[in-house]
Design a protein that fits this description.
alpha+beta; 2 domains; 4-stranded antiparallel sheet
Length: 303
């Protein structure tokens, strides 16, 4: 059994070398398909990170009208603690404090300070800054703040503007995923067709060898095996090439990518999830290679 398996691998390797030009075409298309699947995996990590970052920065800021007394604002703050399980903190920011924060934030930007002087008065409104324990809690808190009984003292609630940012980011993420999956499927189909034609040509060029094997009583598995393993070679080399390409890219551009993605380290994510990613790549490339090979064998190799 071991000797037969060794010979099957030997014949597979010989066929792989003999058809290396056609094999390069197969591996190129298969590598692009694997590249897209890998990119989708990495993009999932990036999108989850960015959405989480945005959600952690989201809060509800409720701005009160200029004429509202501080006692009324503090009364609203006390009532908010009916959401005590959901609310992490509530910070009252007076008009004076808001002005101080603005000046401190823009102390090195004269244009803002000059604009403030031109106005001639404090334009900031008193507010409550509300931080929830989980982003899903912001909706009921915001609905409470928008009830009719509070509209006489509240100027605006900022939650809905922040929610639009999250929804927009989620929408972009979903659209990109759809495009990448569609391209992966199209390239996967193309890889199947090219592998199919490569195996077909290999069968035609190996007719004499196949006939000799049949004459000496070789089993169907022994005849078909080298072609299947040859297809697996294409898949494995494609996966290795793609991973090498990503590692080289991360080695040169890791810092720039981390800055671009707001602190998300693609190299660390790639390394930490490499085994899971490798299984996905092997499964995807393996299915493409084995399916197309078996399809060609069924159609053109009558044994």
């Amino acid at each position: 059994m071991f000797i037969s398996l060794k010979r099957v691998f030997k014949f597979a390797w010989q066929g792989f070398l003999r058809n290396r030009v056609l094999g390069l075409e197969v591996m190129f298309i298969m590598a692009i398909a694997v590249f897209l699947i890998t990119s989708l995996f990495l993009f999932q990590g990036i999108s989850d990170f960015l959405i989480k970052e945005v959600q952690e920065k989201v809060d509800v800021s409720v701005y009160f009208k200029e004429t509202v007394r501080e006692e009324e604002i503090l009364s609203v703050e006390r009532n908010l603690y009916k959401f005590s399980n959901e609310i992490e903190s509530v910070e009252y920011i007076s008009r004076e404090k808001a002005l101080e924060n603005f000046i401190e934030k823009h102390k090195d930007e004269p244009i803002y300070l000059e604009a403030l002087q031109e106005i001639g008065y404090n334009p900031f409104l008193p507010s409550l800054n509300i931080k929830a324990r989980d982003p899903s809690y912001y909706a009921p808190i915001s609905n409470y703040l928008n009830q009719d009984s509070l509209q006489g003292i509240i100027e605006r609630v900022s939650f809905f503007q922040n929610k639009k940012v999250i929804d927009k980011l989620s929408s972009i993420t979903a659209n990109v995923k759809t495009v990448v999956i569609s391209l992966s499927l199209i390239l996967g189909l193309l890889a199947v067709l090219i592998t199919f034609n490569t195996i077909k040509l290999t069968i035609f060029t190996s007719k004499e060898e196949i006939s000799t094997m049949q004459l000496v009583g070789a089993s169907n598995w022994f005849i078909r095996g080298p072609f299947v393993i040859q297809g697996i070679f294409y898949g494995i080399i494609s996966v290795l090439a793609v991973n090498l390409l990503f590692l080289i890219a991360f080695a040169f551009f890791s810092y720039r990518l981390e800055t671009f993605f707001l602190g998300f380290n693609l190299l660390n994510y790639f390394q930490m999830n490499f085994l899971s990613l490798l299984w996905i790549q092997i499964a995807f490339a393996g299915i493409l290679a084995i399916f197309s090979t078996l399809l060609a064998l069924h159609k053109y190799l009558k044994v």
